[in-house]
Amino acid sequence: MILETRCISCHGGEKTKAGLDLSTRELILKGGESDGPAIVPGHPETSPLFLQITHKEDPGMPKTESKLPDGIIDEFRRWIEAGAPLEGKLSQAQKVSNRMDEWAMFKPVVRPAVPAVKDAAFVRNPIDAFILHEQEARGLHPRPEAPKQVLLRRVTIDLIGLPPTPEEMRAFEVDASPNAYEKVVDRLLADPRYGEGWGRHWLDIWRYSDSYQIGFSSYWGGAHAWRWRDWVVENLNKDTGYDQIVLQMLAGDELAPTDPDALRATGFVVRNISSDSLEGQQAMVEHTSKAFLGVTMNCARCHDHKFDPFTQKEYYGFCSIFAPAEQHPDPIPGKANVKADSIDRIYDAKPKELAMLNKEAIDPCVPAALGGGKLVIQPVQVPAWSSKPSRRPYAIQDALKASQQTIDTARKALAEGKAEQIAELKARVAAAEAHDAAFKAVLKVEEMEDAGKGKDAPEWVAAAKAATHAQREEEVTQNEVTVELSRAALTKAEAAQAAAVAGTPSAESPAPAGAGKAAKEVAAKAGGVAEAEKALVNAQGRLNGPPRNDDLSP
């Protein structure tokens, strides 16, 4: 049949292009993305698919191929005139749908009946019944119960990864109570080493790794990924449910955006999200499906999966779930420098971002085989500073405190400075004060925005202009510091040149270089002074010039 031999490979077997599935009569009559059925039973002249096969309508089918032989077309016409009879599912499409039956994981979970056994006295819980039932069916007998020493060693190593101490062994051996074993288990589960031992296994699955780079880095999950590691250990020790652990690792920024403790959990996403958005989305799909779903979806990145029931479109729909996410270091209370210490977490930087497939934006979805489909995305109310952690109240206070400390340090250095340093130290004080003023001016604008005042409000415009002016003043003072530093460097180079010409050592040149080399150094430093002074003049011009339209967004 033509549908089987020429159509199903693109419409119902490996693929369902244009949303058209020709694998069953019901789906044929449903049609695809275009309105109406693909075939009108009894009427080939009005059946869209027949008109495309005869090349009377575009696109002609099979697409990009020559028109089918007249004999095949005539056979198809007679089939439609006969009412388009089709029982069951076309065999090639059946092969694809059978894949779901081959995998137990795609079937609904059903609790089996506990089997009956001959030795009912052996059964202490339902699991024993299942094991004993299979043993009895094979003529096998259970092993005798392990001696106390063996039992304690097994459970202790299993739960905390270490053998029992001699004292623990003796205590267990003399404990004749019927719940002696249960007491040991409770003690071991309450031991902090339980979370540390089992946390290693879970973190291996979730790809935890410390960054090998020094300082702040997003590679391998950030320089402070250990905070996520500690969160996993702590929650295993608190007996947090597995479902809650997974939810918080994937969506802690939305479930508890104001809770720094919960935000640590999103280190799982940080571990996979990278600076390249597409690479990050694909890493999240790969490792979320491996870690939590027990499947690999990588093949569907480039084509419909050849063995598992995942289409390429479903793959990119899964990518779209993670498309908005980006990494951000959250400041720690009392620590203004996020490079020194922070909580590496995620947030939805681009809420409307979608993954692209062949220049088409794909809506978020979960593969149908996993019980999903198109997702209904609901908005979540989060604080304004959730996407801008530097605007957290404690972060602002810490930044203000750090700014004042910079001013105090600069003033102290000026008071204790040497005469030849005074110009530079004065410039540093002015720069620190200008930075503080600009920061406070920007805070005023942000406070207005948080209070609901838009950019068309006169108060906001006035505050934005003031903030822009303060930022330009800060730029001038920073350039003044650069000028003083470059002048000091020139003075040292000139002293070294004089010593080189005279052939005597100096403080700047204990072992004087040749006069030619010293002259080149002076020329280079003089050029640095010229560049710094030019940058200062430009900054002063911006300070005294009129504001531009884009200056109203400090």
Describe the structure.
The chain is mainly alpha-helical. It folds into 3 domains: 2-97, no CATH class; 195-381, no CATH class; 393-552, no CATH class. It is built from 20 helices and 6 strands.
- The protein's oligomeric status is single chain
Number of strands: 6
By DSSP (H or I, 4+ residues per run), the number of helices equals 20
Mean pLDDT: 84
* Shape assignment: flat
Structural class: mainly alpha
Strand order within the widest sheet?
A: 1-2
Radius of gyration: 36 Å
Measured as a percent range, the helix fraction is: 40-55%
The residue ranges in which pLDDT falls below 50 over 5 or more consecutive positions are 92-98, 214-218, 549-554
* Beginning-to-end CA distance, first to last residue: 69 Å
Largest β sheet strand count, sense and barrel closure:
2 strands, antiparallel
Query: What is the H-and-E element order?
Result: HHHHHHHHHHHHHHHHEEEEEEHHHH
Beta-strand fraction estimate:
under 5%
Number of structurally distinct domains:
3
What's the structural blueprint in terms of helices and strands?
Blueprint (H helix, E strand, L loop, with lengths): L1 H6 L17 H6 L17 H6 L16 H12 L9 H12 L23 H12 L10 H13 L5 H9 L5 H10 L2 H14 L20 H12 L4 H14 L4 H4 L3 H6 L4 H17 L18 H11 L2 E7 L10 E7 L6 E3 L2 E3 L2 E2 L6 E2 L18 H24 L5 H29 L7 H45 L12 H30 L10
Antiparallel strand pairs: 1-2, 3-4, 5-6
Structure keywords:
single chain, 554 residues, mainly alpha, 3 domains, two-stranded antiparallel ribbon, 20 helices, 53% helix, flat, disordered C terminus
